[in-house]
Design goal:
Elements (H helix, E strand, L loop, with lengths): L3 H7 L5 E5 L6 E3 L4 E3 L3 H15 L3 E5 L16 H11 L3 E4 L5 H8 L6 E4 L13 H12 L4 E4 L10 H5 L6 E3 L1 H14 L6 E5 L8 H7 L5 E4 L4 H7 L14 H14 L2 E3 L3 E5 L14 E4 L8 E5 L1 H9 L6 E5 L12 H12 L3 E4 L2 H9 L9 E2 L3 H8 L5 H4 L4
Parallel strand pairs: 1-4, 1-7, 4-6, 5-6, 7-8, 9-10, 9-15, 10-11, 15-16, 16-17
Antiparallel strand pairs: 2-3, 12-13, 12-14
Length: about 400
């Protein structure tokens, strides 16, 4: 995989460099403005954009945002992300109001050496996500007309076989940006040269989202800590009463098998021993105090649902991380967006900070939780920008966006 440093050494002055970034940031719409609630992904691509601009390239940044239906939708415009990128760069960033149309062509043509432009949301064009190779390729052809070189730096999208991720690199000289190079180096530490004890903490809502990675980790990790909504399917599989807690009943057979395999393989599988429960989901807008209680994880009342791991579970999980040399965490331990149910996720994040091992926060909601709960990001070993991409890498899958850069 050619690196951006090699590209810079060859010289990029005056050349149009297409940077496939991941500016898929969460937006909050107010009465008059659109606010970015977490700009972590924009900040993550800064080193690559800055290096190219300072080397005299004409930088064309492209990304998706959300899931528009293959047509323009103002709710998913990248205009606010482009404005934030300009603020972080301390320079004007031009914005094209389409992807490959007149605005994109004229905006790119108007760039001087060292200037940066952002083109509109790539998913406003159906060709970006099409499963038809010809349709995707046709869109990639038009994107290629905007550039001389390609730099892949949108790690959060490398598991997608999309035009700008997979097809476009085949049409231009290409290299990996700093973010992708860093992410891949970190993931290799979790798969190829792992320092032990190796502890993996998984949370989030659905067991089905994590089944494949659990399957892989049962042969690699020393301990698996299971929290969040997915834990209740594990508790149900052990025969416990879980009340109205989140349950994927169709996944119980697979979970039973994983519990048995963990014991057979000598992998310590750690589940919550207590949980905070309530009769309803909390109000995440007003964040009004919730009426909850803490109960044993095997005695959840029939009319209540679990919303966070309890105090004993927090201590238990933290104790399992204390001696770890490598820790990977993906998925919150509860409904961290509400202060009454943020304790489990807070405790887990703090346990990673207290660990003397190499700690990786696996993107997505986990990364958002770290920032929302006020932790110093620099204190973690690495915070990934791509939860789904990280998990698929750990599953052993070939990621299209990385494969496209590896020739």
């Amino acid at each position: 995989m050619k690196t951006i440093d090699e590209l810079l050494a060859d010289g990029v002055g005056g050349q149009r460099v297409f940077v496939r970034a991941d500016l898929n940031v969460p937006l909050e719409s107010g009465a008059e403005t659109v606010k970015i609630s977490d700009d972590g992904r924009i900040r993550a691509v800064l080193p690559t954009v800055k290096a190219l601009a300072e080397a005299g390239a004409r930088v064309v940044v492209a990304s998706h945002l959300g899931r528009p239906k293959g047509a323009p939708d103002p709710a998913f415009s990248l205009a606010s992300a482009a404005a934030r990128l300009g603020e972080l760069l301390g320079a004007d960033v031009a914005f094209a109001t389409d992807t490959v149309g007149e605005s994109a062509r004229s905006t790119v043509a108007g760039l001087a050496d060292g200037q940066v432009a952002v083109i509109e949301n790539l998913r406003f064009n159906a060709g970006e996500t099409s499963k038809d190779d010809a349709e995707r390729g046709a869109f990639a052809d038009r994107l290629a007309e905007l550039a001389d070189l390609y730099v892949g730096d949108g790690f959060g999208a490398v598991h997608r076989k999309h035009a700008s991720v997979f097809d476009l690199p085949a049409r231009l000289p290409h290299a990996a940006g700093y973010l992708i190079a860093t992410e891949v180096a970190v993931l290799k530490k979790l798969t190829e040269d792992v320092k032990r004890p190796y502890v993996v903490a998984l949370g989030g809502a659905k067991v089905s989202d994590k089944l494949a990675v659990i399957d892989q980790l049962l042969g690699k990790a020393d301990r698996l800590l299971i929290g969040g909504g997915m834990a209740y399917t594990f508790l149900k599989a052990k025969g416990y009463e879980i009340g109205k807690s989140l349950l994927q009943e169709d996944q119980i057979p697979a979970v039973v098998e994983y519990i048995e395999r963990a014991e057979k393989n000598g992998v310590e599988l750690v589940l919550p021993v207590d949980t905070l429960v309530a009769t309803g989901f909390p109000d995440l807008k007003t964040k009004a105090p919730a009426d909850y209680e803490n109960v044993d994880a095997d005695k959840i009342p029939a009319d209540k649902e679990g919303l966070d791991i309890g105090p004993e579970s927090r201590e238990l999980f933290a104790s399992k991380i204390t001696d770890a040399e490598t820790v990977f965490w993906n998925g919150p331990m509860g409904v961290f967006e509400h202060p009454d149910y943020a304790g489990g996720t807070t405790a887990l994040a703090q346990a990673l900070l207290d660990s003397k091992g190499f700690t990786v926060v696996g993107g997505g909601d986990s990364a958002a939780a770290v920032r929302t709960l006020g932790f110093d990001e620099s204190k973690f070993g690495h915070i990934s920008t791509g939860g789904g991409a990280s998990l698929e890498y750990l599953e052993g899958k070939t990621l299209p966006g990385l494969a496209a850069l590896e020739d």
